[in-house]
Each structure stands twice: as structure tokens, then as C-alpha cells.
Specification:
It contains eleven helices and 13 strands. 35% of the residues lie in helices and 14% in strands. The chain is globular and about 95 Å long. It has three domains: 41 residues, no CATH class; 257 residues, Aspartate Aminotransferase, domain 2; 103 residues, Aspartate Aminotransferase, domain 1 (Alpha-Beta Complex), CATH 3.90.1150.160. Bound molecules: pyridoxal-5'-phosphate. Pyridoxal-5'-phosphate binds next to α4.
């Protein structure tokens, strides 16, 4: 038996019955009053349902899945600010281990005082590397009594936007090698005419954003060697290994793209791509201590102790570094090799299926990186932008875009295959692409050709 409570006005407020769900809440002005944590959680959670599904996102290179143990570590370390090295000394030890492991993976020469740091991504890493090369160039010019104005960098039109950003933000002339039908990368031959005594560096790509191909790095390296002997210009080669830095070491370990090439003075990688950690993590590594002028390294002491720091940001979460450490320990070389092999196999299987679809032709069949790029056989008949939209209706996120100048007349579809994209998904996606192509070519009411059934054994 219970005594009746007849004078309380307390209300039970199930989440969806709360006022917040039936009243307008300002979207662009700080609300006057708050709401319960449960209500706020549910509201934000529901709004985000309008986002695409990361598992179906083949547009991005960025990791969209990690193991539950990684998720747990991420939550446990959310509150730690990476910059507080004195307060979180073990996090800093982990940071140093992670950067060292990456330096060794890229064959940084022992005993040369290689340095490196974690960054927010490859964009920050590239800015830091090129700022260092710009400053080194200025110091060399001053020592020679020469002017230090009008520096330039040489890159292909196949670079990621962050390279043009560097040039514009930090006032360096961008000398860009155009693309052409059939050549979507650069090599020494294209770079040579653009070099001069004011070139602070050359960008070489281990995996281009547009077509997932590789610049001819060995020929650029050889060219820079010849240029130094002949003209005395010491021009560093920076390798942008944002996407390839955790692929090539495992699927083509013999290929020399890294510090094994003599002119490579710095390398960046996006750990949040095939390093297999969530967004917010990149790394830059310098070959030798002298590649990073010490005047760019700040020594901060107001958090206690002396903290050398080379970064564009101050505060940043530490969990991405922790997650990379987790993944390194969890997988080892063997684990990465297995994952890269299976990602490559799935990408090649997907390429095979897409290449077999009437109306599509492959520009890249994922032979070197798990990236499939297709174009329309006849762009008049098949509009890839519409195809991309039709796929989106099924939930797939597959971008269509134009290639950089002078190949901008070519529109392509790009599919980046990641760890969590299984063979089963590849089958479903290829089926949906075939259906969408059919719809575009024959109208929405036409029934797609049935797939020819293969015998089961
Ligand atoms: C993704 C990418 C970048 C930019 O990297 P973020 O980590 O997103 O800043 C730069 N270069 C290449 C080749 C890339 O693929």
C-alpha cells in the first residue's frame, strides 16, 4: 500500500514530451533558457541524422570506423589538451613514440636528428614543412648576400587545395604544372622548366587527390640532384603522402618514395586516412634537424617546464595521437599489411565491376592505391553528376567532379575504398551504379537488365 501524494505538481517528462520538442528553439541565437541534458542530446542527435552515413561515404579518405576499444580510449582522453605537455607527460611520451615510428616507417636516416610532430592533418603538416623550407631558403640567400623576395614553389595541378592555400596565405608564388588528357601526375620533365634560384621546394605526391595516382617521384628527385650539381640550387623535395603514406610501405615496400630518395627533406601523412584513426591527426617529419630552422620552434614555459613547439594551433585534443598509438600497437606491420591487402583487393574488385558496366570507363583501376576513378564513355549520354545524385538517393556518397586544368573537360567519379568497405558492399554498390546508369540512359521507368546469373559452383 502507498500513501497518495495529492499536492505535488511534479511532472514526469519523457524525452520527446519535453517542451523542447514541440516549441521553436532559436537556431542562430543563444537560447534564453537551457534544457535538460537528455533533451539536448536527443535534439542534436536527431538533427545529425540528416548527415550522410559515414559507412557509405566513398568520397572521403578519412577513417570512419575504429574498434570499440579505440572508441573507449578516445572518450577517456577527450579532456586532455595536447599542448599541456607538462601536465600530461605520458601523452607527450606517446606522441614522441608515434612520430618516431612514422619516421622509421619512412626510412628517416638514423643519427641525422630527424624531427617531427603530430598536426591536425596534412594541411597543417604541409604548411609547417613549407614554412621551414621557405625560412631555410631565406637564410641561405641572406648568407649569399642575395635578395629574399619572390620565393616560389613548384607543384602539379594534381595537388590538394592546401598547397594553393599555403602559397596564397604565406605569399609564395605557386608555379603549377598543368595536367593534360592522359597525364594526371607530374615528373622531372614537367618540373624542370619551372625551377629557378627562388624555388623554395617542389611538391611530390604519393597519391593524388584527383585520380589516386603517384607523381614520378624518382625522376623529380634525380632532377633536383642534377640541378644542385649544375646550378648550385639546393631545392628540397617535399613528399605529400597524405593518402599513400600508410599504403605504399605495406603494399609496395620496395618502392623508394620516402627518405631513401636523397632530395626528400620532409614528408607529411594524414594519420586519419590510412593510418586508420579518426579525423584530427596528421604528421610532418623532417629528414635532418637542420631542415627545421630552430628559430621557428617556440619554447613555452607558462604551463610549467620547457616545451618546444612547432605548430599553427595551440590547444588541440590529444586523443588522435593516443588512437594512433593504439592502432600501431594493435596492428603492427603485419596488421597494416593485411588490412592494406584486403582494401586493395576490394578496390580492385570494385574497379572490375564498374569497368564492366556499359557506359563507364576506368581512369584508374586501383592498381596502386585503393581508389577507383571512372569517366563516362560518352559524357553526352551519361552525366556523372546526375549519376552521383542518383546514388545519393540510395545513401551512397560518391562524388563526381572535374579534373584540374588543363584536363578540366573530363568529369570523373571517384570511389575511395576504406577498411570498413567489404566485398559485399562492393557488390551492392556496383549493382546500384549499374541500375543508376541504366536509369540515366533509358529513363526512370525502364527496367534494368537483369544480371546474368552465374552457376553457384
Ligand atoms: C587529404 C589530402 C591532403 C589534406 O589533408 P588533411 O589531412 O585533410 O589536411 C593533402 N594532400 C593530399 C594528397 C591529400 O590526399
Amino acid at each position: 500500500m502507498h500513501k497518495l501524494d495529492l499536492d505535488s505538481d511534479d511532472v514526469v517528462s519523457p524525452t520527446y514530451a519535453a517542451r523542447s520538442f514541440s516549441h521553436d528553439i532559436p537556431k542562430y541565437r543563444l537560447p534564453a533558457e537551457g534544457m535538460s541534458a537528455d533533451a539536448a542530446y536527443q535534439l542534436v542527435h536527431d538533427e545529425l541524422n540528416l548527415d550522410g552515413n559515414p559507412a557509405l561515404n566513398l568520397a572521403s579518405f578519412v577513417t570512419s570506423w575504429m574498434e570499440p576499444q579505440a572508441n573507449r580510449l578516445a572518450v577517456e582522453t577527450l579532456a586532455k589538451n595536447m599542448i599541456d605537455q607538462d601536465e600530461y607527460p605520458q601523452t607527450e611520451v606517446v606522441h614522441r613514440r608515434v612520430v618516431s615510428m612514422i619516421g622509421r616507417l619512412f626510412h628517416a636516416p638514423a643519427g641525422s636528428g630527424s624531427t617531427g610532430t603530430a598536426t591536425i592533418g596534412s594541411s597543417e603538416a604541409i604548411m609547417l614543412a613549407m614554412l621551414a623550407h621557405k625560412r631555410s631558403w631565406q637564410r641561405r640567400r641572406e648568407a649569399e648576400g642575395k635578395p629574399t623576395d619572390n620565393p616560389n614553389i613548384v607543384m602539379g595541378a594534381d595537388v590538394h587545395t592546401c598547397w594553393e592555400k599555403f602559397a596564397r596565405y604565406f605569399e609564395v608564388q605557386a608555379r603549377v604544372v598543368p595536367m593534360q588528357e592522359g597525364r594526371y601526375t607530374i615528373g622531372g620533365e614537367q618540373v624542370e622548366p619551372l625551377l629557378d634560384e627562388r624555388t623554395i621546394g617542389v611538391a611530390g605526391l604519393l597519391g593524388t587527390t584527383f585520380t589516386g595516382q603517384m607523381d614520378d617521384l624518382a625522376s623529380i628527385d634525380a632532377l633536383l640532384g642534377r640541378v644542385e650539381s649544375a646550378r648550385g640550387w639546393r631545392i628540397p623535395l617535399h613528399i605529400d603522402a597524405a593518402s599513400g603514406g600508410f599504403l605504399t610501405p605495406f603494399c609496395e615496400p620496395e618502392l623508394e618514395w620516402d627518405f631513401r630518395l636523397a632530395r626528400v627533406r620532409s614528408i607529411n601523412v594524414s594519420n586519419h586516412k590510412f593510418g586508420l584513426v579518426y579525423p584530427g591527426m596528421g604528421t610532418v617529419v623532417f629528414r635532418e634537424q637542420q631542415d627545421l630552422p630552430q628559430e621557428l620552434v617556440f619554447h613555452i614555459n607558462y604551463l610549467g617546464g620547457d616545451m618546444p613547439n612547432y605548430s599553427l594551433n595551440f590547444s588541440r585534443p590529444s586523443n588522435s595521437v593516443i588512437l594512433q598509438y593504439f592502432t600501431f600497437l594493435r596492428l603492427g606491420r603485419e596488421g597494416y599489411s593485411e588490412i592494406v591487402a584486403s582494401v586493395m583487393a576490394n578496390a580492385q574488385a570494385l574497379a572490375g565491376k564498374l569497368g564492366a558496366i556499359d557506359g563507364l570507363t576506368l581512369l584508374n583501376d586501383a592498381s596502386q592505391f585503393p581508389i577507383v576513378v571512372a569517366r563516362a564513355e560518352d559524357p553526352e549520354k551519361l552525366d556523372l553528376t546526375l549519376l552521383s545524385r542518383l546514388l545519393r538517393e540510395r545513401g551512397w556518397i560518391v562524388p563526381a567532379y572535374t579534373l584540374p586544368p588543363d584536363a578540366e573537360h573530363i568529369t570523373v567519379l571517384r570511389l575511395v575504398v576504406k577498411e570498413n568497405f567489404s566485398r559485399d558492399m562492393a557488390d551492392m554498390l556496383a549493382h546500384d551504379v549499374r541500375a543508376a546508369v541504366h536509369t540515366l540512359e533509358h529513363g526512370p521507368s525502364a527496367r534494368p537488365k537483369r544480371e546474368r546469373r552465374r552457376p553457384l559452383c
